[in-house]
Amino acid sequence: MQKTRAQTLLRSIWHYRGFIAGSVRREFQSRYRNSMLGAAWMVLNPLAMIVVYTVIFSQIMHARLPNASSQFAYGIYLCAGLLTWGFFTETVSRMQNVFLENGNMIKKLNFPRICLPIITVLNAGLNFSIIFALFLGFLLVSGNFPGWVFFAMLPLLLIQVLFSVGLGIVLGVLNVFFRDVGQLFGIVLQFWFWFTPIVYTVSTLPAGVRTLLKYNPMSALIVAYQDIFLSAAWPHWSDLWAITLLSVALCIIGMFLFRRHAGEMVDEL
After folding, report:
1. Contact 78/56 with Cβ under 8 angstroms?
2. pLDDT at residue 105, as a whole number
């Protein structure tokens, strides 16, 4: 019985699991190798950020969420959006350059090239896990943990990772052949951030702008995260069908481009 391409790909990834795990470990260790506090910076930097957002910003911007009962409401609202948005941007931004940055490795070593995007996602996921664990710790200590609704975040993260991976692979392949893609996407991300309800609430926007937000695939995800952590409310799953289908489509397109142009990418690098 002939193996399908998907089975072959999964077997290759499993066979190189040691290479993937070792690469993630080496990057994590190298990031703080020459600093006095080492990996402690992984905790200190996000901890300082969370303190600023949840304590200082909550006092200054509390009026933005007048119906919220917690004094930390705006800080929680801001963190729920900023931390997950940061995971998205780190994943996509690093993935769009992953083939360029590892050009020498691709030329000299024989390994499944799909390992590189996987390593990128795992590194970004590790950073996000540390930061988000601190945020959850704050929610527990302050009595704002959403309870069982928290587990609704898991499918949201899965959708976000699929969206980030699909978009990242498409950009990564295109960036090998057209180097302006990476520069242009950096500008797009800046506008994209302000077109996503992270700093402001959807209710403060004019009706026409709220309609436009429906065309922003990250908007529904960010609002779902904010509903979970601010209101302990289950997401409106019907609002997430569009980004789910888009995520699957991007993954399929990304893998098609990757497989079709893998040989040409080596020549360009």
Report:
1. no
2. 76
Average pLDDT for 86-115: 82
Cα torsion angle, 151, 156, 160, 163, sign: positive
Provide the H-helix boundaries in 32-72: 41-51, 57-60
Taking the C-alpha atoms of 81, 84, 90 and 95 in order, what is their torsion angle to the nearest 10 degrees? -130
pTM of the model: 0.86
* Angstrom distances, CA of residue 10 to CA of 4, 7, 16, 141, 240: 10, 5, 10, 41, 28
Rounded to whole angstroms, the Cα distance separating 258 from 91 reads 17
Tokens of 80: 């729920």
Q: Which of 193, 194, 195, 72 is nearest to 135 (CA)?
A: 72
Residue 166 half-sphere exposure toward CB, CA atoms < 13 A: 17
Nearest C-alpha neighbor of 80 from the set 193, 213, 198: 198
Contact 172, 91 (CB under 8 A): no
